[in-house]
Automatic annotation (TrEMBL):
It catalyses: (sulfur carrier)-H + L-cysteine = (sulfur carrier)-SH + L-alanine. The keyword Hydrolase does not apply. Keywords: Iron, Iron-sulfur, Metal-binding, Pyridoxal phosphate, Transferase. The lineage of its organism: Bacteria, Bacillati, Candidatus Margulisiibacteriota, Candidatus Termititenacia, Candidatus Termititenacales. The gene is iscS. It comes from Candidatus Termititenax dinenymphae. PROSITE patterns: AA_TRANSFER_CLASS_5 (PS00595). Its EC number is 2.8.1.7. This is cysteine desulfurase. PANTHER family: CYSTEINE DESULFURASE (PTHR11601:SF34), CYSTEINE DESULFURYLASE FAMILY MEMBER (PTHR11601). GO terms for molecular function: cysteine desulfurase activity; iron-sulfur cluster binding; metal ion binding. Its cofactor is pyridoxal 5'-phosphate. Belongs to the class-V pyridoxal-phosphate-dependent aminotransferase family. NifS/IscS subfamily.
Length: 392
């Protein structure tokens, strides 16, 4: 049986070159870079090289900071809570404290749930609704701004439907009003160019395992001069903004993956998109009662979210897995209740149909042979599941 992995928005395979370098820094060059002996000193040049690659990944300037984190979950929590704490600190003059935040209903739980938590602590949060294609406009942000708005946090690309949001335009609006802006770029890095100088954002989060780097490591970009409170307290690592012994193997692995991601952007935009479109066009033309979720144009080149009427998504995933195909659904089992995707509900999709949605997400390692295999088995799977569902 073939094995086809089409769940790359969940996580990606670590590239072989990144994995190989990580082995070296786990087993040979394993010294703590904060140490003064040669074991520690030997790691520093490679650590610097890796950081240069990570800076180049997002075109960060030398004077900017890129904090190494455990991933985007930590990075998102760090920047949002840091801004909140700074504005509730009693040492900050009351006249300059602000307590209004703007986000969207499309955000990953690491942003969405963090704002829900801060609301319990007194934050005022406006959650902007997306349109039916999963897009947010700068005009919506403009209308939501108040003289108390301190931070806007809106993702660059959505994890379930792949839609790309107009962060550059929103950033200009925020800065014209003296407001900080953060974007979660986790699903954008490695899929299309992400340039912090062009976007102009103050903070940007990412995770290595989304672009063929190792799991458990990521970064938080902080523009020069922007305040950030430590989330962890301890040693002086990362300019005392993120305490803890540096994960040198992870940083080196992320650096290799970053360099490879930049080199593969054209391939993502052409070949990965072609394979995604091949699968999408086949489904829409040959399997009746199928519906594309999200914007057809303004989305990442690797993502396809599609609903199959009268075909339960969880059942479809099971059957796909029986054929060696890995995909995902926005639904999640919460205790005994099957909850539909919050993102698909945000698009106004019928609750029943949202349970029938499946996400296929490709990578640069996806082959045409694999897509052809999915095309060969998918119609039969859908036909059988619909017969069961409709009692035929």
């Amino acid at each position: 049986m073939k094995r086809v992995y089409l769940d790359n928005n969940a996580t990606t395979m670590t590239s072989l070159e990144a994995a190989k370098e990580m082995v070296r820094f786990n087993s040979i060059n394993y010294g703590n870079p904060s140490s003064l002996h040669n074991f520690g000193l030997d790691t520093r040049p490679e650590l610097r090289k890796a950081m240069d690659r990570i800076y180049a990944l997002i075109n960060a300037a030398d004077e900017d900071d890129v904090l190494i984190t455990s991933g985007a979950t930590e990075a998102n929590n760090h920047v949002i809570k840091s801004v909140f704490y700074a504005n509730t600190d009693t040492s900050t003059p009351l006249s300059v404290r602000k307590n209004h935040y703007i986000t969207t209903n499309l955000e990953h739980p690491t942003v969405y749930n963090t704002f829900q938590y801060l609301e319990k602590l007194g934050a005022k949060v406006t959650v902007l609704p997306s349109d039916n294609n999963g897009l947010i406009s700068a005009e919506q942000v403009k209308k939501a701004l108040t003289d108390q708005t301190v931070l806007v946090s809106i993702m660059l690309a959505n994890n379930e439907i792949g839609t790309i949001l107009p962060i550059k335009e929103i950033t200009k609006l925020c800065h014209a009003n003296g407001i900080l802006i953060h974007t979660d770029a986790t699903q954008a890095i490695g899929k299309f160019p992400v340039d912090v100088q062009d976007l102009g954002v103050d903070y940007l989060s990412f995770s290595a395992h989304k672009f063929h780097g190792p799991k458990g490591i990521g970064g938080l970009y902080v523009r020069k001069g922007k305040r950030l409170e430590p989330l962890f307290h301890g040693g002086e690592q990362m300019a005392s903004l993120r305490a803890g012994t540096l994960n040198v193997p992870g940083i080196v692995g992320m650096g290799v993956a970053a360099q490879e991601a930049v080199a593969s952007l054209e391939y993502e935009a052409t070949e990965v998109k072609r394979l995604r479109d091949k699968l999408e066009n086949f489904i829409l033309k040959n399997i009746p009662d199928t519906f594309l979720n999200g914007d057809k144009v303004k989305r990442t080149p690797n993502t396809l979210n599609i609903a199959f009427k009268d075909c339960e998504g969880e059942a479809l995933l099971w059957d796909l897995n029986e054929h060696g195909i890995a995909a995902s659904t926005g639904s999640a089992c919460a205790s005994e209740e099957l909850e539909s995707s919050r993102i698909l509900r945000a698009l106004g999709i019928d609750k029943a149909l949202s349970h029938m949605a499946v996400r296929f997400s490709l990578s640069r390692y996806t082959t045409e042979e694999e897509i052809d295999y999915v095309i060969s088995v998918l119609p039969g799977i859908i036909k059988r599941l619909r017969e069961v569902s409709l009692g035929r």
